[in-house]
Amino acid sequence: MELNLGQWVVIGVCAILILGYIRGYYYNRRHAGQVLAWLHEGLETLGPVSAGDKLPGMASGGRLEVKRAVAPLKSVEAVYLLAPRENLLFWLFHLLRGRQDELILKIVLRATPVKESLIEAGLRRDRDFQRVIGKEKSPIMDAAIHGLEIVHWSKKSQAGERTRLFLEQYGQSVTRLSIRRQVPHLFLRARLKPLLNNSAEDFFSALRDLSAG
Fold first, then answer.
1. Which are the contacts of 175, defined by CB distance < 8 A and separation ≥ 6?
2. pLDDT tens-digit series, residues 84-102
3. What is the distance between the alpha carbons of residues 133 and 140, in angstroms, rounded to a whole number?
4. Is the CB of residue 78 less than 8 Å from the CB of residue 98?
5. Number of Cβ atoms within 10 Å of the Cβ of 166
6. In degrees rounded to 5, what are phi and psi of residue 76?
7. Which residue of 32, 86, 151, 212 is 20 to 30 Å from 134, comparing CA positions?
């Protein structure tokens, strides 16, 4: 039986999607191993590391936890999210939204941060960043670093200087940073690709210093 042009197109598209799934699956699997090794290297400097709950839905990635972290930290949750490379259409949509492989850190401190330690840093287009600083009174705006705006609420804040030093080193990776009173006290969202070029031990050590009161 001869196939017409439309049938050949359907077969071709299916073949591309199948090959894309295979390639994306194995790439994400290999990449996940690299990310896990990097995270373990850094998180083990903060305390014993355990696997967290599985991610909901069809998300690609994983979760690690440090439930008994060294002071001034109490607990750390690290979630890494990989682009959906297994599905070419979803991956394209992901790229069009400007999304990449991401790391999300949620850190609980042993003591609630004082006002002088509260910090918000984010991209101008970040809605959560704009919402948070919009409802606070008398925010103090620092000069932007790597496109990130920095806001704090105390002129005598040593946390502001620590944040500037942290973002000068890691700001190309960070898209959102928050030190706040509610749990998690420290929230960070970062692009994984540039972050993996740094020492994991140095990165998590810098985060620990950033959390100091």
1. 102, 122, 123, 126, 148, 189, 190, 191
2. 777 766 667 766 766 788 9
3. 10
4. no
5. 21
6. -135, 135
7. 212
159 by DSSP, 3-state: which?
A: helix
Residue of higher predicted confidence among 27 and 191:
191
Contacts of 78 (CB under 8 A, 6+ apart): 39, 43, 63, 64, 65, 103, 104, 105
Q: 180 with 118: CB under 8 angstroms?
A: yes
Question: Which three-class secondary structure state does DSSP give residue 44?
Answer: coil
Give dist(CA 152, CA 140) in Å, integer.
5
Q: How far apart are CA 184 and CA 76, in angstroms?
A: 9
What H or E segment, with its residue span, contains residue 60? strand 60-66
Rounded distance between C-alpha atoms, residue 192 and residue 102, angstroms: 5
Find out whether 168 and 7 touch, Cβ atoms under 8 Å: no
Those residues whose C-beta lies under 8 Å from the C-beta of residue 73, and which sit 6 or more positions away, are: 46, 47, 66, 107, 108, 109, 110, 208, 211
- The reply to whether the predicted model has a pTM over 0.70 is yes
Spatial neighbors of 84 by CB under 8 A, at least 6 apart, are 24, 58, 60, 90, 91, 94
The H or E element that residue 132 is part of is helix 127-134
Per-residue model confidence (pLDDT) at position 88: 65
